[in-house]
């Protein structure tokens, strides 16, 4: 009964089906065994718990993280200093780290810098649009976003795509926030809090934040 009620309640906060599948990658089992899970906000925690407790197909942490990536839900994997040495990371100096952080999201979105006072342009909508009341963004990738980004990709494939300024992309977004793929329910922080309260009443952990992945077992079990 708990699972059925949680599934009904948490359906408000997460899209029920994956719109794409993360292709051509495999988790490093040694890395997963050594890493800790960091969850940045209650919305992400509630969404992860939804998938972990409401779907029989999600029976391992590896599967849960894969779904989390497919849905665009935020999380981080962290290593202790001793574990970092185990994986021999590429040494990157502080300057290169800052430059990479500054230009990575723009490179992925095909950003073209402006010159002579002209504004820069993007081939895809700039990332900050998602944090400025973009109604199609519900905290995860969904059918509406999949639909309009498929249109963009098709235009690129046909050679019809155009670079646009941030202001023009805002107009484009407003024109695409309607239609049959528009999310029917905008989730709120209160919805996520409601899910978390239900988990607490069932005797489950309040959070997996900073939890070693190796200590997380699915489905979750009631604590003593």
Detailed description of the structure:
This protein is mainly α and 224 residues long. It has a domain of 115 residues. Helices cover 43% and strands 5% of the residues. It has nine helices and five strands, in the order H-H-E-H-H-E-H-H-E-E-H-H-H-E. The strands form two sheets. The chain has a three-stranded antiparallel β-sheet with strand order 2-1-5. Helix 1 runs antiparallel to helix 9 and helix 3 packs across helix 4. The chain starts with a helix and ends in a 12-residue tail after the last strand.
Cα separation of the termini: 20 Å
* Helix fraction by DSSP (H/I, runs of at least 4): 40-55%
Give Rg in angstroms: 20 Å
What's the tally of helices?
A: 9
Would you tell me the structural class of the helices and strands?
mainly alpha
Which strand-content bin applies to the residues? 5-15%
Largest sheet: 3 strands, antiparallel
Mean pLDDT over the full residue set? 78
Cross-sheet strand order for the largest sheet: 2-1-5
């Amino acid at each position: 009964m708990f699972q059925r009620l949680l599934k009904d309640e948490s359906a408000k906060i997460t899209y029920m089906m994956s719109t794409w599948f993360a292709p051509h990658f495999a988790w490093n089992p040694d890395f997963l065994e050594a890493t800790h899970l960091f969850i940045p906000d209650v919305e992400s925690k509630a969404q992860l718990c939804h998938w972990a407790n409401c779907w029989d197909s999600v029976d391992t942490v590896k599967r849960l993280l894969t779904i989390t990536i497919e849905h665009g839900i935020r999380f981080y994997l962290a290593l202790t200093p001793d574990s970092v040495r185990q994986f021999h990371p590429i040494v990157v100096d502080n300057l290169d780290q800052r430059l990479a952080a500054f230009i990575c999201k723009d490179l992925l979105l095909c950003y073209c810098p402006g010159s002579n006072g002209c504004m820069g342009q993007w081939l895809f909508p700039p990332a900050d649009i998602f944090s400025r009341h973009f109604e199609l963004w519900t905290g995860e990738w969904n059918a509406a976003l999949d639909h309009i980004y498929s249109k963009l990709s098709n235009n690129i494939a046909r050679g019809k795509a155009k670079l646009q300024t941030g202001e023009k992309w805002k107009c484009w977004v407003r024109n695409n926030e309607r239609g049959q793929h528009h999310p029917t329910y905008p989730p709120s922080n209160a919805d996520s809090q409601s899910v978390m309260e239900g988990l607490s009443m069932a005797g489950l952990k309040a959070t997996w934040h900073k939890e070693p992945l190796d200590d997380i077992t699915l489905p979750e079990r009631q604590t003593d």
